Amino acid sequence: MTEKQKELAEQIGLFYLAKNGGDYIKTREEIERLGIKDILPVKDIAIIWTTRPGLLIGKRGKNILALEYFIHYKIHIIEEMDDILDYLIPIELEDLE
């Protein structure tokens, strides 16, 4: 992980800490739910690979806009779909119908 990636990750962590009113436990749970796999800062763009893009974007895009404002980067999201967890959790038969 490069220094730029570490700095960006710390900024994202601080954003979620502020969003959760300084509650470290809630912040950690929310960040884990996001399923962020990788972060790549390129000039003024932050590329984020995540398994849960909807959570990162938030209702009506409010979360992603606030995050972009906080970290001073335009964010591009790439959905990471081949997470092993997706295959480990059994699907109920009624979900298939």
Question: How would you explain this protein's 3D organization?
Answer:
The chain is an alpha+beta fold and 97 residues long. It is globular. The longest helix is centred in the first third of the chain and has 17 residues, at 3-19. The model has no long low-confidence stretch (mean pLDDT 88). It contains 6 helices and 3 strands. It has a 3-stranded mixed β-sheet. Helix content is 54%, strand content 20%. It has helices spanning 3-19, 24-34, 53-57, 62-71, 84-88, 93-96, and strands at 36-42, 45-50, 74-79.
Order of neighbouring strands in the sheet with most strands: 1-2-3
Give the number of DSSP strands. Answer: 3
Query: What portion of the residues fall into strands of 2 or more residues?
Result: 15-25%
**Helix content class:** 40-55%
Uncertain segments are: none
Spatial separation of the terminal alpha carbons: 43 Å
> Quaternary state, please?
single chain
Main sheet: strands, sense, barrel: 3 strands, mixed
SSE order in H/E notation?
HHEEHHEHH
| Principal-axes shape call | globular
Mean pLDDT: 88
**Total number of helical segments?**
6
Structural class: alpha+beta
Q: What would you report as the Rg, rounded to the nearest angstrom? A: 15 Å
